[in-house]
Amino acid sequence: MRPIIETNAIAKLYRMGEEEIHALESISIQVKRGEYVAFMGPSGSGKSTLMNIIGCLDTPTSGDYFLNDQNVSDMSENELATVRNKEIGFVFQTFNLLPRSSSLDNVALPLIYAGTNKSERQDRAMQALENVGLGSRAYHKPNELSGGQRQRVAIARALVNNPSIILADEPTGNLDTKTSYDVMDLFQDLHDQGNTIIMVTHEDDIAHYSHRIVRLKDGLIEKDEVNTEIRRSSSLQQPM
Prior knowledge:
By secondary structure, this protein is α/β, with parallel strands linked by helices. 32% of the residues lie in helices and 28% in strands. The protein has a single domain (35-57, 76-235), classed as Rossmann fold, CATH 3.40.50.300.
């Protein structure tokens, strides 16, 4: 089976006036369908740049990136937008919910861009909310929800289009410890259902929920290893 994600020597160079910043030097990586991978590294390691390229939010300066057998390296902005909406579900640290819209309308948003009719949008959005345990909060706005509930709405939105991969960028960064562990249990449940998940995090305990950890340093892969100590919140000692 071909990998769902494959990068071949991708590099990313930013020019700031006369200064050149090599965010990625040469990254070759494969992710198989159904894997659960964490990208880790210090600030400036390239992990966010790699996530942006995999998420089709940016393109490499050189090298090739294949997503579901499509070479997206040289796609136009419109082509990338189509791929993002169809293939990728995003979960962000800051939730990125529309403040004046209900949970249901926030979750349905990707379906509007996909051209889905209103009745089907609402049915699928409600099902996605029920899948993350928030069916009873469908008509609540973000300011009526806790941080953990807002992140669950964001996860439901990421799932509503049945994407090929879920990309989570510091998904617990704005949550307290207990809520973080609850959200990570939800990600584990999603992985158990067959979803492919890639997560960026700087927190070691959060990374150990994944099944594979890729550590980056100075725009290169420093280490790529199977996680032999997979964690769930029930196995972690809660702080007093």
